[in-house]
TrEMBL record, chain A:
GO biological process terms, semicolon-separated: respiratory electron transport chain
InterPro entries: Cyt_b561_bac/Ni-Hgenase (IPR011577), Di-haem_cyt_TM (IPR016174), Hydrogenase_cytochrome (IPR051542)
GO molecular function terms listed in the Swiss-Prot or TrEMBL record: electron transfer activity; heme binding
Protein name (database record): Ni/Fe-hydrogenase 1 b-type cytochrome subunit
GO cellular-component term (any): plasma membrane
Native source organism of the sequence: Sphingobium terrigena
Cross-referenced SUPFAM superfamilies: Transmembrane di-heme cytochromes
Topological type in the membrane: Multi-pass membrane protein
From TrEMBL, chain B:
Organism listed in the record: Sphingobium terrigena
Keywords: Signal
Protein name from the UniProt record: Cytochrome c
InterPro entries per UniProt: Cyt_c/b562, Cyt_c_II, Cyt_c_prime_subgr
MF annotations from Gene Ontology: electron transfer activity; heme binding; iron ion binding
Taxon lineage: Bacteria, Pseudomonadati, Pseudomonadota, Alphaproteobacteria, Sphingomonadales
Pfam families associated with the record: Cytochrom_C_2
Amino acid sequence: MTRAPRQFVWDLPVRLFHWALVVLIGFSWWSAENYHMDWHRLSGQAVLFLIAFRLIWGVVGSDTARFSHFLRGSRAIRIYLTDKQAPASVGHNPLGGWSVVAMLAVLGTQVVSGLFAVDIDGIESGPLSHLVDFDQGRLASAIHGLCFTLLQVLIALHVLAVLFYLAVRRRNLVGPMVTGSAAAPAPIPVRRAGPLALVIALSLSAALAWWLFAEPAL
Amino acid sequence: MRTLLIAAGFAALLTSPLIAAPGDIVATRIAGFREVGAAFKNINDELKSGSPQLYVVQISARQIRDYARQHMGWFPAGSGPRPGVKTAAKAEIWSQAPAFKKAQDGFVAQANAFAGVAGSGDVAKMRVAAKALGGSCATCHRSFRVEDKR
């Protein structure tokens, strides 16, 4: 008995990144709403690590993780939107690739504003708040709040797009994000990143996340 | 007659700030609490460092202690929420006056305590006292202020 051919889509680091982010965004929201600011800072540190990792992985990771692979021009987006017969791309579609950029940009703004944010009473603050004054910290906090609303909008769009694919296009996008592969009659080879790239990406992002949250030497 | 006029004049002078109070006192307390927040940020920034600048903590502690004393007069009747006035002060401040007074006294007590500890120079004790001071802010704010976590 031969196994049905599978198309490799997402490597393990991308999948772990995705689902860890889902959990951490939820946890960050909950911890902020319930005044667990020590946990909120830890969660932010983990998100910062993940974003830094994803940015590096977008350069050295497997093909489907790379920005150069999934960031396409306006022509590709137009063809994707108008031509139903066009072959489906492996990984992000031409529009989805840019939604990844939008998500990373908003998440990046979220984390960076959080580093400097100060609450209204001057009690809770981000790990770099000592570099700014009270009013600047309050501004960072306002950006942190606005940015979260924007993030919620992007996440809602993302989930709607996945549901659209499931209901209208009859294509399950969640499965590959869990298992890493999808059923395909003629799989296209995808170059996968090796362990060295992984070690480099992990250590660089971990070093950044540690350094930004380290105890300040005022 | 003249004495009476002078006395009336003085009385008018003395009470005019009270009559003008509601509008101004809202601005006064917003500005005052902003200063408390800024001073407390300075304290917490120093205390999270491995080598805090003690004079920053001490100056800020005295600022907070002084504002804590003043803040007892920042909530006269009639300075609560009403149309046209932007304030996060809840009506409960006046409808649950004894509870509010207790919370205010808690702030003054913690501010005094912290100023004392700051003067002692013991950083470990300062960190504990700063938590208690922050707790007195939070206790009052969660009951009597319209919360904006941002």
